[in-house]
Design brief:
Haem_Oase-like; 306 residues; metal-binding; EC 1.14.14.18; iron; oxidoreductase; 0% strand
Length: 306
């Protein structure tokens, strides 16, 4: 399989030149500036609009969890392997931010203990995970852009999205909602300030900073592709489910119709038997005439046989 990135270097360079000067602000502010357009596009994907409308289906949420598992498995593996890297160490907060175990608990809730054998991951998610593993080996400093995009995004909207999901799906007691919970973070706002401060303390050469800003744009674009791919899978899954429901309903209708036809046939047979019985139980004169007719018919059949 060939893995491709979303933006070309030329397009990314142009966007950065028009939106931000590399030496004019802190790293966190620079990332916010260069990803502004992508951020808006991500919020307007069909999947995110469903969340904003408070209209989330169980199919959507389960498939989203499948992708989040793949993404965080790759991201946190790369962060763990590079925890001592000078660019990664300042923003390495596994106790406060790690999401993988939370996603695993949610997947087990919805799919059962054998959830690993049941989950489905779209192609765009695999591309994203591949990119995370690639930079974990070749450019660990770029992990900062992905960690910032994912963790602070989840921390910022986590509480709101969690409530929307709970209400839409009617989930009780927080079951299936572990992903949105950050028990190690007592104050999200204060923690985000700390995180940005740590990011801004990272020392980068100009080329490294430029590369990190490019990676931040790429991170948002990869997330947009994931959202779009998930929504396509949701549409296919829900269509297949509706077809199965329609087929089952039609079978039930045909079965009911056949049953009605059989019942009607039984009624006709019963009436016929009633008529025959009534005739047999008729007057002595009728029974005598009937007996003569039967005798004559028997004689006639005997003659025809010879």
């Amino acid at each position: 399989m060939v893995f491709s990135v979303v933006n070309t270097d030329m397009e990314t360079d142009k966007k950065m030149q028009t939106q931000v000067e590399l030496t004019d602000s802190d790293l966190s502010e620079q990332i916010k500036a260069v990803t502004k357009d992508s951020h808006v596009r991500a919020e307007n994907t069909e999947l995110m609009l469903a969340y904003q409308r408070g209209n989330v289906s169980l199919t959507q949420y389960k498939l989203l969890l499948c992708s989040l598992y793949e993404i965080y498995q790759a991201l946190e593996e790369a962060l763990d392997n590079n925890s001592n890297h000078p660019s990664v160490a300042p923003i390495y907060f596994p106790l406060e931010l790690a999401r993988l175990e939370s996603v695993e608990r949610d997947l087990e809730h919805f799919y059962g203990q054998d959830w690993r054998e049941k989950i489905v991951v779209p192609a765009a998610t695999k591309i994203y995970a591949h990119r995370l593993r690639q930079i974990g080996k070749d450019n660990p400093e770029y992990l900062v852009a992905h960690a910032y995009t994912r963790y602070l995004g989840d921390l910022s909207g986590g509480q709101v999205l969690g409530r929307i999901t709970q209400k839409s799906l009617g989930l009780k007691g927080g079951e299936g909602l572990s992903f949105f919970s950050f028990p190690g973070v007592s104050s999200p706002n204060l923690f985000k300030q700390l995180y940005r401060s740590r990011m801004n303390s990272i020392e980068l050469e100009e080329e490294e900073r430029k590369g990190m800003l490019e990676e931040a744009v790429r991170a948002f674009e990869l997330n947009i592709q994931v959202f779009d791919d998930l929504q396509k899978m949701v549409s296919v899954t829900e269509t297949e489910s509706e077809l199965m429901h329609t087929t089952t309903r039609n079978r039930c209708t045909r079965h009911s119709s056949t049953h009605s036809e059989l019942a009607e046939g039984e009624k006709l047979t019963a009436r016929s038997l009633q008529i025959q019985t009534s005739l047999v139980n008729a007057s002595p004169l009728f029974r005598m005439v009937l007996g003569i007719c039967v005798a004559l018919a028997t004689v006639g059949m005997g003659i025809y046989a010879f």
